[in-house]
Amino acid sequence: MRLRFIPGVSFLAALALGFVLALIALIAGLPIRTASLFAGAWCVVLLAATWIDWHLTLPAWRDAQVELSRRLPAAFALGVSARIPVELRTAGHYRWQVKLHDHADPTLLTNGMPRALQLERTSTLDFEYAVVPTRRGEIHFDRADIRVRSRWGLLEFFDRLGEPENRRCYPDFAQIARYAWLAGDRRLAEIGIKTYQQRGEGTDFKQLAEYRIGDALRHIDWKATLRHEKPIVRQFQNERDQCVILLLDCGRRMRADDRNEGIGSSHFDQVLNATMLLTFVALKQGDAVGAMTFGTPPGEERWSPPRKGAQTLNMLMSELYAVQPSPSHSDYLSAAQALMRRHRKRSLIILVTNFRDEDSSELGQALRLLRSRHLVLTASLRERVVNELMSQGVQDFESALETSSAHLYEQSRRDAFNRIAARDSLMVDAEPQRLGVELVNRYQAVKKAGLI
What we know:
By secondary structure, the chain is an alpha/beta fold. The protein folds into four domains: 7-61; 67-170, Immunoglobulin-like; 174-195 and 239-449, von Willebrand factor, type A domain (Rossmann fold); 204-237, no CATH class. The protein contains eleven helices and 20 strands.
């Protein structure tokens, strides 16, 4: 075991003391030769003491057999603080003054490192520190650095403890957890999600029930009515076993931050949050959900075929958790052609992007191709900063330019959006924070209308 070491505080203090004494001796009139011999002897004694200290400390440190172990969570959530418990086990017969720095991933905001600790004789020390992930993807924990004070304090040496570990950082699941809680307690309106469940709607048979005022007479089951000697009607539910495919733009425009405060506020991060929310709702409705990305560098696109079941959400996030928006251009037509080759069954295609007026021609071609087989819902993100610039007061020439440019940009974007919406009413134009709610509302309206 080769250890790096540096002079300790005691060594530097003793060295400084020797030179101060030599300087005082020179001022007092002691010959230079005598003062030099004194300083040299002082250094030799100090180096000898340091050598002895090193050879006393090294075997004792080896005998201590210090071990470090972390108890990492199974996964991290973007922007959500997590506590990292750490355990240090020590053997031997000495106390140790140490400073520990755990090498957490540089994408983590770390609070509580480095930490000064005292390791007691044959003991276990537990402590924890906090981290906040700032980026989705793989998170790596390297071996920790520990800085140990020698027995006499003349040296401090460095050692490595623990083992490298990897974890994944996923988007924040808070929206899904909150939606599930609201759905269970019938408080969907609190987050703006509308409910469309009505008795007798849909085409899939659900159950037989006693007739109530307002039920359609055409739904009366006459055989069951005769058998029970009271009016019985057939109840229906929205169609199940349908496919929903999320077509996610990962191009340069999805890298926008839009002046949102906090971690995970980029457009693409909020698109993933909306994707999780919509996936959860669609799976609860009995539909199959899949996803495809475009606008990524060649070979990095992701394709997850539509699947049903509660495990689909985890599988989908395992495919998308590490996807980052790229600086490349998003080719809408190529994405539509790739999706048409991969999936032929009629489905609800939800295209999530951030288009501009210059994209209207290419996007229009892609939508026409997709509509030849599928039902397409186009969702475009609207930048909040544009509204802020349009509503700001005009105080000088620079603010006038900003305001007029924002109005011009918004007008051209609105014209492009209206041109596409004129041919298809299934459009969503929302700020990133509202995207999840808007998509769920439109999805449920499509299900209620039986458009798929």
